[in-house]
Amino acid sequence: SEERMGHRWRARRGSLFEGWIEQFTHRPLLVAAVSLSVGIAAHLSYLNLIFVAFVAVFIWYPNVRYWALCSFVLGWLLAPTIPTERVLAAPFFGEVDVVSAAHATRDGDSLTVRSPSYLYLLKTDLASEINLGDRLHIEGKIMPISGAFGENLLGQGIVGEIRPSKIDFIQSGSGIWKVGKAVRNSFSQFLSGTLPAHTAATVDALAFNNDAKLDPELKGFLRATGTIHIISTSGMHVMMLAWAIMLLLSRLPISRLVQIFVLGVLLLLYVAAAGWRPPAVRAVVLILAMLLPYQFDRQPDALSALSLAYLLAVIINPIDILDIGLELSYISLLGLVLFGGYSNEEHPQLWDTVKHRFWMTLRMSCVASLATIPLSAYFFGQFSTIAPIANLAVAFVVLPIVAAALVAWPISWPFPAIGSLILLGVGTLANYIEAATSWMSTWPGAVVQIEQFSGYWLAGFYFLMILLWGPQKRDPLANHSYPP
Question: Whole-prediction pTM value?
Answer without folding.
Answer: 0.77
